[in-house]
Design goal:
Blueprint: H1 17-28, H2 41-102, H3 108-120, E1 126-135, H4 147-151, H5 169-173, H6 180-184, E2 189-192, E3 236-246, E4 255-265
Antiparallel strand pairs: 1-2, 1-3, 3-4
Helix pairs in contact: 2-3
Length: 271
Amino acid sequence: MMRHKSRPKPSKSNRSGPDGLLNFFADLVDTSHMPVPRIPRRSLKRSHRGERDRGATLIEAAIVMPVLMLIIFSVLEMGMLFRNYLSVTQLTRDGARSASAFGRDYDADFRTMSTIQHTVNVITSGEVKRVVLFDATDGRENARVPDICTTADPSNPNAINPAPANLDANIFKHDQDLTSAEANAITRCNIFTPDTWLDADRYGCDDLGNAGEDPDFDLNWCPFVRDVSAKDGTDYVGVWVEFEHNWVTGLFGDSQTITETMIMRLEPKEF
């Protein structure tokens, strides 16, 4: 029969006074005879495994996060590009409708550009570089803007159709008294840019750029030579817009050029 060792009783001499009382309670809570708890090996393995899992998670996040951010910014950039594309399409349609409605009015092009300006005011993250109004009668719905009209200096309309020396420039611009060869050689398009297209003094087909004057923007296809006769068939007007969209994040470069064309038949006003 096993005998349990009894704890030694504190001596009476140690029980007197404050120190004795403290010694008494210290003897009561003595834990030297108690076994030391052991941590199971399984718990230690789980602890090490948790640390490894956290390290793997950090590595995976470092790999996935750049790809995720690239996708997010790409979606945002494409969304803004698509929004501006829709705005440019609407701008082109508004311009074509206006040019069709104003027909051969004296200030048709100026009023058309005023309509376009209203749409331009709501576009962000980019700017309109140029707008071209051109005669699309020959090709009709399939007509394309002449290449020279997309690259020529917009501040000098005479660079597109320099008038023959033997003809008065005013007659040349208005398609009057021209041979068929001379008439066919004319490129009928008017170029406009945002910084000057609301300058009303540069419309009307009467300032030719002589004696230091600024030539009118509508010289190359004057509104009042456009055919709006229902009997003969009205002309077709085309509107071509060049827009520069600015990327926000720079992931795809600095800018992206958007071009849009809309062609409509002039509304008949003569029957």
